[in-house]
UniProtKB/TrEMBL annotation:
Key words of the record: ATP-binding, Nucleotide-binding, Oxidoreductase
Listed EC numbers: 1.3.99.30
InterPro entries: Amino_oxidase (IPR002937), FAD/NAD-bd_sf (IPR036188)
Pfam families from the UniProt entry: Amino_oxidase
Domain Amine oxidase: 41-250
GO MF entry, a single one: ATP binding
Protein name as it appears in the record: ATP-binding cassette transporter CGR1
Superkingdom per UniProt: Eukaryota
Organism: Cryomyces antarcticus
Length: 314
């Protein structure tokens, strides 16, 4: 008699990129503009609570949450009874940074340096604290070094040190603390699938694995008119949207220019090394998002951004 072998195989799929979704109302707005909704397209957003567990070198931790009751307990543990009021002050400033940035920056086009001189923008410039660092602004609200770390590590998402990133970017902490961190059930590709489906219903034709060799311009280089594919085929277009790296685009897809040369000489922001690990057991102490903060906080950032070294305490 032959023996029958039964294999128990599990498949694990990773989101190779973001693991959190912020500003869900902007996603809802995009789908609304397409005469549909996230729900109608089968996209379900799950709120991650708490946002993070932040771990210090001695095993102590801090739980970041949208729940004010939780935050009151966490903040007062380190900052004392008056610490929560200072936390609300930090949240108020971060809220101001966010609202002003959305209104005067995110929803505006900046087509030239002169665009930066709009009176509506300049009037609010100082309120955005662009000339102070995130760390220096946080230090005005938090007396302990540990909480200064807790409320500034987010600059890493932008490839910047909290000691150099403009204070304006505390808006990132605000979006997480006020509106929460979300996750699309089934993975981030569910949102992409939904947008693709909407596009196809509206008559959009997607051509994947079709390399672009050049963005075609008018004779005066004032406007894009289409793209030249690597195959030699030309596609005409009223609008060309380029989502490749800016330095790459100027040096490889557009004609030679002083802008391309200048961009190539600019320092790049820091990226990260990512590992995707699947465990065959649950670790109760670890929730969805865990950040391990170096005790030598400033030294770890200086090693990366100033010395271009791997820090002794990653």
């Amino acid at each position: 008699m032959g023996r029958r072998c039964i294999a128990n195989i599990r498949f694990q799929r990773f989101d190779q990129g973001p693991s959190l979704l912020l500003l869900p109302h902007l996603f809802a707005e995009a789908f609304h503009d397409l005469d549909t909704s996230l729900e109608a397209e089968g996209v379900k957003l799950i709120k991650c609570e708490p946002n993070y567990n932040l771990w210090f070198g001695d095993g102590e931790s801090f739980e970041l949450s949208t729940d004010l009751a939780r935050m009151k307990t966490e903040v007062e543990k380190w900052e004392g009874k008056d610490g929560f009021e200072r936390y609300l002050g930090f949240l108020q400033e971060s809220h101001r940074h966010y609202e002003l940035s959305v209104k005067h920056v995110l929803r505006k086009n900046f087509t030239s340096l002169l665009s930066m001189l709009r009176p509506s923008f300049l009037r609010h410039l100082l309120a955005l604290h662009p000339f102070e660092s995130i760390y220096s602004r946080a230090s005005k609200y938090f007396w302990t070094e540990r909480l200064r770390r807790v409320f500034t590590f987010g600059s890493m998402y932008m490839g910047m040190s909290p000691f150099d990133a403009p204070g304006t970017y505390s808006l990132l902490q605000y979006t997480e603390l006020a509106e929460g961190i979300w996750y699309p059930e089934g993975g981030f590709h569910k949102i992409i699938e939904a947008l693709v489906n909407v596009g196809e219903r509206l008559g959009v034709a997607y051509r994947l694995s079709t390399p672009v060799a050049q963005i075609l311009l008018t004779r005066d280089s004032g406007r894009a008119t289409g793209v030249l594919l690597s195959s030699g085929e030309q596609l005409s277009a009223d609008v060309v949207v380029n989502n490749s790296d800016l330095v790459y685009a100027y040096n490889n897809l557009l004609p030679p220019s002083t802008t391309a040369t200048a961009l190539s000489k600019r320092p790049s922001s820091c990226s990260s090394i990512s590992f995707y690990w699947a465990l065959d057991t649950q670790v109760p102490a670890l929730g969805a998002h865990n950040i391990f903060l170096a005790d030598e906080y400033r030294e770890s950032f200086d090693n990366i951004f100033k010395k271009q070294l791997i820090p002794e305490q990653p």
